[in-house]
Amino acid sequence: MTAPRMNREELERFLAAEFPQAFHPGSGLSIEDVGFGTCLVRQAYDDKFIRPGGTISGPTMMMLADFALYVAVLSAIGPVPLAVTINLNINFLRRPDRRDILAAARIMKLGKRLAVMDVHLFSDGSDEPIAHVTSTYSIPPEGR
Amino acid sequence: MTAPRMNREELERFLAAEFPQAFHPGSGLSIEDVGFGTCLVRQAYDDKFIRPGGTISGPTMMMLADFALYVAVLSAIGPVPLAVTINLNINFLRRPDRRDILAAARIMKLGKRLAVMDVHLFSDGSDEPIAHVTSTYSIPPEGR
Amino acid sequence: MTAPRMNREELERFLAAEFPQAFHPGSGLSIEDVGFGTCLVRQAYDDKFIRPGGTISGPTMMMLADFALYVAVLSAIGPVPLAVTINLNINFLRRPDRRDILAAARIMKLGKRLAVMDVHLFSDGSDEPIAHVTSTYSIPPEGR
Amino acid sequence: MTAPRMNREELERFLAAEFPQAFHPGSGLSIEDVGFGTCLVRQAYDDKFIRPGGTISGPTMMMLADFALYVAVLSAIGPVPLAVTINLNINFLRRPDRRDILAAARIMKLGKRLAVMDVHLFSDGSDEPIAHVTSTYSIPPEGR
How confident is the model at residue A38 (pLDDT cuts 50, 70, 90)? Predict the structure, then answer.
């Protein structure tokens, strides 16, 4: 087991300083757990996420996956604000419940220039994924 | 040329009624143009979209692409609120400017049960795409 | 545990009858294990797969993933020759060795009309994936 | 208009020397046209590509797309054998006919370290795409 480069408190402090538009007290985002190249993050439920038919919107899930991916990258390479997403592929699997959403991210490959990851999203309390994401990040040369 | 099933005014009315959380006067979203299976939509610039380094966030682009895809589907199958995204793949190509973003969507294949589309995103005033999206929608049986 | 709809022998017989161009004695393809919605399949090494730098070609990996996906679908819905791939997304993670390749597929979501799956590919003898695939299949109405 | 770094004859000579397993007289692959970052390539029809129902197999289309992507990269960066595919996403749109397949590739973004491309595939004689591919290549540092 490799320890993460940043623990939960360090990640929260870094994100609040660097990403105040996305990660702020009213965002409903929180970090539940973090390892080296892995994390579990949460989006608290909010009525504004709802779409016709009572389902949580796709962009809400994409935003949470994006957050999980960034936390997983930081946990493995440390506080590098310039890591950027190259691409993101999401498959929507099941209708989410009207509840919090959890996202479990892991790095599948950490290279010098690229990190490839996936994320499983769940409605809180359920084991069946509501969405699955794969994504590649570009890591700046000074990032390793 | 096939005429769209819903014109711009009909689309705006439908979206305001069915998707008030996403499409409302303060959202900055607008429909510039619509054809059968094609559309051009706009996200007005807002400081809240900015991320470190002065770039517009990935989720902002994904949200706009999601909106463009839905408008393109409606333009081809009419007011069917239950068409759902099966998957979405985004490639980020260039740093967006601090300006409005335009999204041009087209249906590549409209089948009985599925629609496959792509979207090019641009910073307003530029011809070089900042992102490219492909996506598949599932069309409910009553949708055709 | 749900039993697979077709066991290994039934799958091999079905594939040899329906897909003789792809699954024949000289193809090097074999089924190692099968469950309900899961399988492990193998591509025997062949010099013709090699590309410059001594690596196994991308299309070889895509072909094996395609085979694994089809076996996983059959294991869950039975002998339906007309299930078709809607899309396939592959991330190449590591250089494969000059050895057999194994592919482990699982269904993440089995719906009435769609199956969403992923596949991890490995060089024989290694635990680190060389590629990861996600894919969606369309299931014909008579398929369930 | 920028001229391609390698013209058709140079590309064919390079590919025959570097990729003899994939590009050889019996492969049925040919280059129809090439520009800077664009190309049109052909896969001659062969009965071995056929699957149940009389359709051309998915791996045949993926292989041709992979070939088109590589030719497009070479046309823009020159004879760099070590450019590698990071990922490839294919959407299958229509049943191909029992005919040659054409693939039109273009680079959407050529960066220092990455190239992002798409490919439209067609049955010879038709204007409606049978498949659409997006893909990212990693370009080695010495490649520019």
Answer: very high
Q: How far is CA A143 from CA A112, A117, A138, A140, D98, in A?
A: 9, 17, 10, 5, 50
More confident residue, B24 or A42: A42
> If you count residue pairs, one on C and one on D, with CB atoms under 8 Å apart, how many are there?
78
CA neighbours closer than 13 Å in the CB half-sphere of residue A43: 28
Burial of A2 (0-12, 13-18, 19+ CB in 10 A): exposed
Query: Is B109 near chain D, with CB under 8 Å?
Result: yes
* pLDDT score at B143: 46
As a whole number of angstroms, the distance between CA B69 and CA B110 comes to: 13
Q: What confidence tier does B127 reach under pLDDT thresholds 50, 70, 90?
A: very high
pLDDT category at D98 given cuts 50, 70, 90 is very high
Determine the pLDDT at residue D142.
63
Give the helix ranges, DSSP H, for chain C.
8-18, 58-77
In the 8-state DSSP scheme, what is residue D1?
-
The dihedral of CA B138, C120, B89, A108: what is its sign? positive
Residue A99 confidence class, pLDDT cut points 50, 70, 90: very high
- Residue carrying structure tokens 């919107």: A57
Q: What are φ and ψ of residue D80, in 5° steps?
A: -110, 100
Residue B30 near chain C (CB below 8 Å):
no
Give me the pLDDT at residue C143, please. Answer: 46
CA distances from C21 to A130, C129, C136, D97, D98 (A): 37, 28, 23, 17, 15
Q: Is B6 helix (H, G, I), strand (E, B) or coil?
A: coil
Query: For residue D127, what are the contacts with CB-CB under 8 A and spacing of at least 6?
Result: none
Strand partners, B34: B39
CB proximity under 8 Å: B 63-102 to A: 63, 66, 81-82, 84-92
